[in-house]
Amino acid sequence: MKRIAILTSGGDAPGMNAAIRAVTRKAIFEGMEVYGINYGYAGLVAGDIKKLDVPDVGDIIQKGGTCLYSARYPEFASEEGQLKGIEQLKKFGIEGLVVIGGDGSYHGALALTRRGFPAVGIPGTIDNDIPGTDFTIGFDTAINTVLDAIDRIRDTATSHVRTFIIEVMGRDAGDIALWAGVAGGADDIIIPEHDFDMESVAKKVRIGRDRGKKHCLIILAEGVMPGHEFAEKLSEYGDFHSRVSVLGHIVRGGSPTARDRVLASKFGAYAVDLLKAGRGGLCVGMFDNQVVATDIVETLESRKHQPDLSLYELNHQISF
Ligand code: ADP
Ligand code: F6P
């Protein structure tokens, strides 16, 4: 392949810029041309496409968000949207596409591949919920942002002897809550992938109180229920001086960590290697610290992301 394009789609994630930089620079290094597509699949269909050169991706490795912008564009699930997208790609002489995004964006890449246009997916989402990789770009930054918030909330929780329910993003996945919860010494972590019993949560809070513990921190994944609903249900078992903190989109912004930048750089360069070799229909991932490519159809259809539930068990054993 001589000319490829790149887009970012779905929820933005810190490190997407580092991936855009890596794809662009590696492709140019390999003697290829690169086009950037603005606003994900919406921009693809609209033909919002421009050539990227070396300076276009300078000074972005340290920035959160995505310099190609992103969009949610449900119309791309339709045949009409996909055919229009392919028409635009052909108009610009583009032979392969790199899609950086989450699960939904991968489905767009899969649709293009099925229609005969080679697309390679790079996992970029704070949720860490994509099959085909141990870690996604943005996850490490997100959990460190949550961790910073937990540490701060712990200060005020201790001062006032309060229980905090800290609601974190993650869509249907509990990875952010799980990792940040263990790192932040959470008293309890509530995730969609594991049952919980409110009475036991309340008991845990009470035992902590009884032995003089000043703070109680419960990290709640948004996929379980909203923080305020959780606090209300908890209050049926006693008054724990609860407060709710919803971290929301704060967790999606900010400068990417070194780990996310390196991951993004590795994924970006590898995606170019694949397209250069004429290989599409793949998604890039990291398993046991090795960058690998898996078939996008097989990955989306027969694999399911599972968080590391040993962390849940670990927290149970060390957080009483
Ligand atoms: P994420 O990629 O972060 O999971 P979304 O689920 O919003 O975010 O998906 C991003 C975009 O991917 C959607 O707005 C749409 O343009 C495209 N997309 C999602 N699902 C499909 C699908 N089944 N077929 C084609 N495109 C899709
Ligand atoms: O997929 C990333 C994510 O931030 C999820 O954690 C969250 O549920 C969702 O996107 C929020 O979407 P929006 O930015 O459209 O409100």
UniProtKB/TrEMBL annotation:
Catalytic activity reported: beta-D-fructose 6-phosphate + ATP = beta-D-fructose 1,6-bisphosphate + ADP + H(+)
Cofactor: Mg(2+)
Pathway: Carbohydrate degradation; glycolysis; D-glyceraldehyde 3-phosphate and glycerone phosphate from D-glucose: step 3/4
Binding-site residues for ATP, renumbered to this chain: 11, 72-73, 102-105
Gene3D superfamilies: 3.40.50.450, Phosphofructokinase domain
Coiled-coil annotated spans: none
Gene Ontology CC: 6-phosphofructokinase complex
Biological process annotations from GO: canonical glycolysis; fructose 1,6-bisphosphate metabolic process; fructose 6-phosphate metabolic process
EC number, as in UniProt: 2.7.1.11
Pfam families per record: PFK
UniProt-recorded Gene Ontology molecular function terms: 6-phosphofructokinase activity; AMP binding; ATP binding; fructose-6-phosphate binding; identical protein binding; metal ion binding; monosaccharide binding
Active site: 127
Keywords, alphabetical: Allosteric enzyme, ATP-binding, Cytoplasm, Glycolysis, Kinase, Magnesium, Metal-binding, Nucleotide-binding, Transferase
Residues binding Mg(2+), per UniProt: 103
UniProt xrefs under InterPro entries: ATP_PFK, ATP_PFK_prok-type, PFKA_ATP_prok, Phosphofructokinase_dom, PKF_sf
UniProt activity-regulation remark: Allosterically activated by ADP and other diphosphonucleosides, and allosterically inhibited by phosphoenolpyruvate.
PANTHER family tied to this protein: ATP-DEPENDENT 6-PHOSPHOFRUCTOKINASE, PHOSPHOFRUCTOKINASE
Function according to Swiss-Prot or TrEMBL: Catalyzes the phosphorylation of D-fructose 6-phosphate to fructose 1,6-bisphosphate by ATP, the first committing step of glycolysis.
Family named by the database record: Belongs to the phosphofructokinase type A (PFKA) family. ATP-dependent PFK group I subfamily. Prokaryotic clade 'B1' sub-subfamily.
Subunit structure: Homotetramer.
Entry protein name: ATP-dependent 6-phosphofructokinase
Organism: Vagococcus penaei
Gene from which this protein is expressed: pfkA
